[in-house]
Structure to design on (468 residues):
DNA sequence: GAAATAGTGTCTATAAGACACTATTTC
DNA sequence: GAAATAGTGTCTTATAGACACTATTTC
């Protein structure tokens, strides 16, 4: 039996790093310095190095881009993108996309890296378009994030160590793009075992009753789930 | 800035093809003919070819292994496995794992391929162990399949074109490894919009009342979901 | 009629959603 | 007290689950 050629390819890990700024869901984008797509906006990413896995590549890129320790941030695979013409370079470049979730960071973007990185509202990114097949990657990562909010406790990854129930609700509202009932959300979250635990402290508000502060609980899955309201059919 | 070497790698698509035989969840495994792991059982898979995407590689392998048209079968990505030592060959081999779901096939395994492929109960496969990191891939694919049953209509992919509600229930029972209440399951499925639609025909039974036959409906997602019973905590 | 599987009725427990209401703060 | 945000109570509806019961077949 004749041996087919086994093409080798270059592999990158691309990151969809989401955060919420002023109640708006934002994604970290970089302006590309080199061809292909020089000058265009793209998702941050980088090539796999010799003795690391793609998960490690993604974690390294994440810490380079955000200055945060990847071990403490939520990071998960979205999928592989391997259309032969997705990147004009040769050898072919296949990418594994990762979803990362970050709390609102002190610096707009930062990073040890010279690239011009900044946060862009997701709606803006989708309107203006990104390089490569990054529009599709962003769409898929968003859908994953929206689904994960229902069944996991990752919403707390958007928050600082201590947060109020109102802030957690704003995470759901920003990612899902809906308004949620405050009283029902409060009850659902505080009564769900392992989702959040009270820190005992309160955060004074300049405008109303101080809110109790919570920390992320030990659970990683939410049961029962917090189902996203279905869009009205009519 | 000095240019780092960009290692190139070989990429495979590996398949976790599940089916149900006599009420037992089975996975298609092949006996490896060549090193590494010659003689050991492994998941079927193959290398990416020149001008195809990994999704196409997976679809091609699936049709080679099962003789079925991949376009009609459920096929989705599970994840990428890229640990540097997961495959001893050089250049490194990264794999993208796919989950495929097949109805009970006429032939035990078949395929145009000379490899010894056969169905193995999933519990057997997990007990005896597979080559490479295929134990982990199988575990992850199973967990994905179990989760997908809750929120999507893929359970019908395990069934023939026409099936009874009892057969559909056996899919859930085999994949989840639980017993479900027959009356409640029947109602839930038949009242869920777009999950199944009656074909009008009935299938006589040698032992009891004939069951009405159904076809897969148009919906791909189940709402409300069919939640898997949580294991009793105590 | 007995046995077997298919399917319906009905009651109860749990969760979701609407929304009135109370609580605690700043001004 | 007004305004604002936090949080509780309570009622209604949707869904899940238990399980008694009816329906249709073969023997």
């Amino acid at each position: 039996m004749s041996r087919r050629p086994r093409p080798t390819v270059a592999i990158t890990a691309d990151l969809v790093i989401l955060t919420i700024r002023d109640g708006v869901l934002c994604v970290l984008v970089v302006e590309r310095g080199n061809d292909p797509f020089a000058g265009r906006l793209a998702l941050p990413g980088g090539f796999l190095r010799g003795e690391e896995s793609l998960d490690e590549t993604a974690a390294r890129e994440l810490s380079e881009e955000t200055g945060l320790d990847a071990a403490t941030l939520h990071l998960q695979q979205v999928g592989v993108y391997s259309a032969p013409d997705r990147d004009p370079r040769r050898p072919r470049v296949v990418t594994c996309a990762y979803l990362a979730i970050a709390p609102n960071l002190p610096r707009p973007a930062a990073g040890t890296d010279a690239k011009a990185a900044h946060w862009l509202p997701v709606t803006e990114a989708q309107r203006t378009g990104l390089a490569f097949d990054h529009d599709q990657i962003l769409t898929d990562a968003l859908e994953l994030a929206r689904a994960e909010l229902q069944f996991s406790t990752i919403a707390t990854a958007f928050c600082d160590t201590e947060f109020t129930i109102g802030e957690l609700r704003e995470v759901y509202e920003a990612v899902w793009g809906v308004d949620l009932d405050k009283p029902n959300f409060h009850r659902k979250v505080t009564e769900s075992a392992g989702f959040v635990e009270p820190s005992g402290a309160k955060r004074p508000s300049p405008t109303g009753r101080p809110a109790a502060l919570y920390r992320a609980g030990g659970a990683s899955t939410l049961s029962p789930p917090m189902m996203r309201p279905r869009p009205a059919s009519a």
